[in-house]
Amino acid sequence: MTRGNIVEFAGVQKSYDGRHLVIHDLDLGVRHGEFLTLLGASGSGKTTTLMMLAGFETPTRGHILMKGVPIEHLPPHRRGIGVVFQNYALFPHMSVAQNLAYPLKMRGDDRATIAARVEKFVHMVRLEGMEHRRPSELSGGQQQRVALARALVFEPDLVLMDEPLGALDKALREHMQDEIRQIHRELGVTVVYVTHDQSEALAMSDRIAIFQDGRIAQIAAPEELYERPASTFVAGFIGENNLLAGRADGSAADGRCRITLASGAEAMAALPHNRALPTAQVTLAVRPERLAIGRPAELLANRLRGRITDVTYLGDHLRAQVDIGGGQRMIVRKPVDQFPERPAIGAEILVGWREEDGLVFS
Amino acid sequence: MAVAVAHGAEAAELRRAWHRSGQRRRLVSLLLVAPLFLYVLLAFMLPIGLVLYRAFENPELIEAFPETASALSGWDGGEGLPPDPVFATFARELADAPKRATAEAARRLNYEISGFRTLISSSARKIDSIEPAEPSAMRAALVALDERWGEPAYWHAMKRATPSYTPYYILAALDLRQDDRGDVVLAPEDQRTYVDILLRTLRIAAVVTLICLLLGFPLANLMATASGPFAVILMIAVMLPFWTSLLARTSAWIVLLQKEGLVNSLLARLGLIHAPLELIFNTTGLYIVMVHMMLPFMVLPLYATMKGIPPHFMKASASLGAHPLRGFLHVYLPMTLPGVGAGALLTFIVTVGYYITPSLVASAGDQMVGYFIAFFANTTINWGMASALGMVLLACVVVLYLLAARMVGIRQLAGLK
Amino acid sequence: MQYRHQIALARTLRHLFGAAMVLFLLAPLAAVVPLSFSAGSFLSYPLPGLSLRWYETVFLDGPWLATLKNSLIVGTVATIAATVLGTLAAYAFARRDLPMPTAVLGFLIAPMIVPPVISGLGMYFLLAWLGLTSTMAGVIVAHTVLAAPFVLITVTATLQGFDMSLLRAAASLGASPTKAFLTIVVPVITPGIVAGALFAFMTSFDEVVVTLFLAGPAQRTLPLKMFEGLRDNIEPSILAMATFLMVIAAMTLIVSVVLMKKNTRNLGGRLGRAMAETGE
Questions:
Q1: The pTM is what?
Q2: How far is CA A24 from CA A235, B11, C152, C274, in A?
Q3: Where does A5-227 sit in CATH, by number?
Q4: Which of B5, B295, C81, C84 is in the most buried spot, having the most CB atoms within 10 Å?
């Protein structure tokens, strides 16, 4: 067990029917105090992983260790892990205060302790005056806060959140993201957070684990995932990316290699870390905001000539689609003032990028 | 997406591991369902099993005349009389058997040949007058007591009644019997009654179901589409009788339909009739009352299904230019079929087993199988016959139940969908 | 005829049909109520006068009251037993990991499907074997098995609207499965459980056939006495009892409608759903 890990998945597999695996040989360490997000499409295994950690699902094979102790056969009510559910799962027949008192009562705390603790957490999530309302009398955001407070009120070391903001509208969601971040910092609690929203993951997490078909495609801090994705899948999943098919000529030097695109144009691109020489068929990934356009592009090592096919005005950005020949397109995204002039559809234009901004994947 | 594991050892090992990992949870569910399951098994399925057992059980002769029984089972049952030692054994056991056991055996033998009961009881009374004699002489002595002991038919009947288990009752319930050679043949024409009763039962159930469907379908439709106080009144009209005691409803109908009852006096006062109509204690009464009893069983599943059909389906059909009748036939009707199936099967199953209401409002000629089961059990104390008829009725119900389970599903039948 | 007129005619006919059905379903019940208040002993109108004499016969007379008492004892005990057994089993179904759930459900509701005359015969054999015929215990055992399926179905239907994630929430907050069941499931689905119990009670309270096989003179229930009365000679005291039973039915019906409406998410059974829907 790695020092500093509160939770450790070791060779965990999960099957719901005895024939198909939804989780393949998962190895994952959750560090003390971190905010770890499990990110993936639906069916990728992220929620199953969370449910196994909470104890609602049993791993078909493998072990889950918490503070070094195997817990895969420990029932959920003895794990002491707080959980915030997607639909909040507030008890409809209890008031806000009773909902918050529930975990404390289950632990046999005395009345005074319960009252004090409930008051503290009601204050923390700013629900003063709502203590005696039923969940059905609260707004979605308020219900969300009750759920949050209830998962934290018994001061667990680890809190799991299963798409807790999925039911809220965009403005409220962004506000709650800040609040959850703040509570995480204040309490120093470890959070494992599940979402399918990559911008939410990027905004909140210390680390993100990207799930793909029951495996972790990459686990890293947001910057690293964005700058140094480990695979085409991650490159395409996090943020927008231009993914272009090409051929590598087999030569490589200084961690770079030469690629021939479909149009016949050539480009140099950086090899990802610890990667062997790419095979003949490769994918080149370049972020839209790293592309230069027009005059600035002339100074860059990789340059392609293309024709603008579409322009979208996004307020602070312009987004242009450029046909670079060979049936391939690139998206360029730049702050409005960095465009030399408002590009016209059909105009010929030069697109360029630095060698280190192009990543190549097998 | 989930990917199937390759076949072979790895897949088998995964299956085992999967089974192990879910076991604990499943065990809790099993423990929760176990009390009711065991209770139904012991307090319901076991009794049904006992009915089945009683339909074949045949203990009377073995209890009264054990040695005669074993001697008769050794007899080949060919033409003619059994060998002399059988007569001797029987004469000795007839003299020694307790009165009660003899009476039971006599009653059992009477089912085989009517008149056998008196033969046994009169012989039992006189048997003590016979001097113990050589086995070969006992035959003559018995025949002298009653010459019927010299007829092979009585001995064949006795042999048929000796095994521990007999097909007699179940055959009788189907108007069949075993002849002296052991072949299954039709019962004599004047004794064939039960197949008629069974067919009558099925016919009554079918007619009641059909009337309930014809009345219930438009009623359920009206309930599903009506609004305001009318909808509430309709619902009360269906639910209140459903919750009211069956006997209270039956007594109401008797009062209403009898000769001096409300319907007849109303019709007479209106000058529509001059002599009271026979409205009850006959087939008419049976159908009127049974339809009243069964209508909710038909209406409620239909209503639940119709309520689930969004009104815009019919509107869509109309907006596409379909005549309302076409829309009804091609859109609405097919969507109500699960409700029709559940309602009709439920109505039929419940009607087929009805006993109380028909026994109170129908004539003797309109009674259904249930009546005869109760009759054999409570009046003539013929458990074998009651059980055999019970098995025939149960077979009908089980077939219908399985049919219903297949066609509309258990959950739909129970009203859970 | 114009299309518009056809529709109007169809609507009128539908309403006429509905009114006729209401008459058919309710009039027989309504017609006997005045007769039970008759001063005479003939079961026809016009009434010779009004009196409560038949109610006195029923409620002051020993035999009727004894059977009512028996019915209440049997009904209460059987309802409690059936409600516990049925609710636990319904909860097992709601957990969704029973092997062969449809077959098990089919097995458990069989007492509702098998004609009572067969069940009664079999139960008589069983109780005779155990020496329990003509005992209160025997009648209660039988009524429990007949009533339990109604609880099972009503509570199962209620649990279909129960949010199972509440149980996960309770577990994550430290509640053992038993505590979670008692503190979360039971309070939330109480209306459904009570409705199921009402069903069970009415099933027992109206049971004749099986009781006929099992009860001795000391266990005669109210329906049994009514059955015997109807078989011999119908007199207004039976109508007084019938009226009383209708009042009971109407009251339980109202209670169950109120229960169902109280928590529309947790409706019980098709009947409950049906009632709540029109009640709105």
A1: 0.85
A2: 22, 13, 40, 47
A3: 3.40.50.300
A4: B295
**Chain A: residue whose CA lies nearest to B2:** A22
In terms of DSSP bridges, do strands A358-361 and B3-4 run parallel, antiparallel, or are they unpaired?
unpaired
Q: Which two tokens stand for residue A322?
A: 């450029």
For tokens 């399926």, the residue is: C149
The chains in contact with chain A, meaning 3 or more Cβ pairs closer than 8 Å, are: B, C
Query: Residue B36 is nearest to which of C29, C85, C121, comparing CB atoms?
Result: C85
Q: What is the pLDDT of residues A20-77, one digit of tens each?
A: 899 999 999 999 999 999 999 988 999 999 999 999 998 999 999 999 999 988 999 9
Q: What is the pLDDT of residues A205-245, one digit of tens each?
A: 999 999 999 999 999 999 999 988 888 899 989 888 999 88
Note whether B388 and B314 are same-domain residues.
Answer: yes
- CA C202, CA C249: separation in Å to the nearest integer? 8
Q: What is the ipTM, given to two decimal places?
A: 0.91
Same domain, B326 and B382: yes
CB contact under 8 A, B304 and C110: no
Name residue B289's amino acid.
V
Q: Where are the beta strands (DSSP E) in B195-267?
A: none
- CATH architecture, range A240-361: Beta Barrel (2.40)
Question: Which domain, by its residues, includes B94?
Answer: 60-164
Contact across the interface for A21 and B21, Cβ inside 8 Å:
no
Count of domains in chain B? 2
- Contact (Cβ atoms closer than 8 angstroms) between residue A281 and residue A360: no
Residue type, A168: L
- B33 contacts in chain C (CB < 8 Å): 88-89, 92-93, 98, 104, 108
- Residue-wise pLDDT tens digits, A235-291: 989 888 999 888 877 666 667 778 888 887 777 777 665 455 666 788 888 999 998
Q: Architecture of C63-279 per CATH? A: Orthogonal Bundle (1.10)
Peptide bond into C46 cis (omega under 30): yes
* Closest Cα in chain A, distance from residue B24 (Å): 9
Cβ atoms < 10 Å from Cβ of B406: 9
Give the best residue of A22, A48, A52, A61 to mutate against chain B (max B CB count within 10 A): A61
Residues of C in Cβ contact (< 8 Å) with B405: 102, 106
Reported confidence tier of residue C1, pLDDT bands at 50, 70, 90: low
At residue A72, φ and ψ (nearest 5 deg) are -65, -20
Q: DSSP letters along A142-207, please?
A: HHHHHHHHHHHTT--SEEEEESTTTTS-HHHHHHHHHHHHHHHHHH--EEEEEES-HHHHHHH-SE
